[in-house]
Amino acid sequence: MVAEAVTAAAWNDPPYSYATNYISDLGVPDCGAQFQGRDLCSPLHQVMNLSFMVQGILFAAGVLLLANLLTGRTRRVVATLAVAHGVGFVLVGLFHGSADGPSFGLVVHVAAAAVGILCANAVAIIVGSTRSLRLPTAYRVFSIGIGVLGLLSEAFVGMSTATAGVFERGGVYSWLLWSAVTGALLLVGWLRGTVVEEDSLRAQRITAAAASRR
Question: Could you tell me the CA-to-CA distances from 179 to 10, 63, 142, 158, 214 in Å, in that order?
Fold first, then answer.
């Protein structure tokens, strides 16, 4: 979001609009290009494209590390979604969202962005829905709610050109907020305490079961 703000601030002619312009417009390298009625000119497109790739890799790495707290199919699903998101946003940074250039580039960009956004919001929903983690109720409600709102927002992106940027950001800022909140809560120990407590209880159950067999 910082990279987005910096890149948008450098966009002077025409003025960049958070309401009507897509985030991807900031990564288009062709100044003076027009796409879907929008005049594009992003002098700092390299900054935006690099941020897409770095964000995708970091989000995927963080989720993969946290996926170790899960088991079975849920763990595999979350890990797959994390990798798909990471690959998707690396491709978003490599292939810009403009009609100029090879046609397959735009197809890859749109498809990769859709996959990345859907997967990240799905991760938030799954984490909030996984009762085995024994997470605080408030955090679970937040995770599910923010993920659902993100998916709903993304579904309304194409309804109006006047609000396309707003709804797209709703689908992206949702999981950015989720990851920031999750990271902050882990750092202060609010979620970590729950996880440690659950691990301790699991260890006690295993020990008790082993003792009963003996």
Answer: 27, 9, 12, 26, 44
> Which residues have CB under 8 Å from 150's CB, separation 6+?
117, 120, 121, 124, 170, 171, 172, 173, 174, 175
- The string of pLDDT tens digits covering residues 7-33 is 999 998 788 999 999 999 999 988 877
Give the phi and the psi of residue 167 in degrees, each rounded to 5. Answer: -70, -35
Contact 150, 124 (CB under 8 A): yes
The amino acid occupying position 180 is: A
C-alpha span between 56 and 63 (Å, rounded): 11
- What 8-state DSSP symbol labels residue 21? S
User: What pLDDT sits at residue 35?
Assistant: 78
Place of tokens 């079961």: 209
Residue 196 has pLDDT above 50, yes or no: no
Percent of the chain with pLDDT over 90: 58
Structure tokens at 153: 């927002």
Distance CA 59, CA 141 (A): 21
CA–CA distance, 161 with 184 (Å, rounded to integer): 35
Q: Give the pLDDT band (50/70/90) at residue 138.
A: very high
From residue 149, alpha-carbon distances to 39, 61, 155, 178, 210 in Å are 30, 24, 10, 12, 45
| Distance between CA atoms of residues 177 and 192, nearest Å | 19
